[in-house]
C-alpha cells in the first residue's frame, strides 16, 4: 500500500550546512526504504512530501517528529495513493530563493513559503507545480 504524507516544520538551525545534512541523510536512507519525495525549504520553514509504503512513511515521519533539528512539526496531508508524484527523486530539493514569486502567490497570500497558513492540499499542489516546472535542484 503506497501512501503520501505532507508535513511542514521549522528549522532549529537554519544554516545551509544543517539543511544540506538533512538532505544528505534522506538521500542516503530513503532508497533502501523505498521512499521518494521532495523537500522545499525557505525562510526557516520546511515543506516536505514523502511517498512510499505505509509503514516506511509512518516510521520516517515519527523519526522527523523526534528529530531535534525540527520544531513545530505539523501533518498537513496524508492519503493512500495508487502512484507516486515524486517517484523520480530519493529526495528532490526546491531552492525557494530561486523561485519566481508569482509561483508562491498562485497558492498563497504572500510571496513567502508559509504552509502553516494554507490547506494541505494547497501545499501539495504547490509542490506538484514546482516539480512540473523543473524547479527541483537535487534530483538524486
From TrEMBL:
InterPro entries: Acylphosphatase-like_dom_sf, BLUF_domain. It holds the Pfam family BLUF. GO terms for molecular function: blue light photoreceptor activity; FAD binding. Residues 2-92 form the BLUF domain. This is BLUF domain-containing protein. The lineage of its organism: Bacteria, Pseudomonadati, Pseudomonadota, Betaproteobacteria, Burkholderiales.
Amino acid at each position: 500500500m503506497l501512501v503520501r504524507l505532507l508535513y511542514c516544520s521549522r528549522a532549529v538551525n537554519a544554516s545551509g550546512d544543517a539543511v544540506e545534512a538533512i538532505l544528505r541523510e534522506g538521500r542516503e536512507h530513503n532508497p533502501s526504504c523505498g521512499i521518494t519525495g521532495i523537500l522545499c525549504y525557505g525562510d526557516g520553514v520546511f515543506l516536505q512530501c514523502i511517498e512510499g509504503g505505509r509503514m516506511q512513511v509512518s516510521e520516517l515521519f515519527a523519526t522527523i517528529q523526534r528529530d531535534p533539528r525540527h520544531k513545530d512539526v505539523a501533518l498537513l496531508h496524508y492519503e493512500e495513493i495508487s502512484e507516486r508524484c515524486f517517484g523520480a527523486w530519493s529526495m528532490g530539493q526546491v531552492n525557494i530563493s530561486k523561485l519566481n514569486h508569482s509561483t508562491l502567490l498562485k497558492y498563497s497570500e504572500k510571496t513567502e513559503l508559509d504552509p502553516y497558513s494554507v490547506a494541505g492540499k494547497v501545499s501539495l499542489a504547490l509542490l506538484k507545480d514546482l516539480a512540473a516546472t523543473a524547479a527541483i535542484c537535487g534530483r538524486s
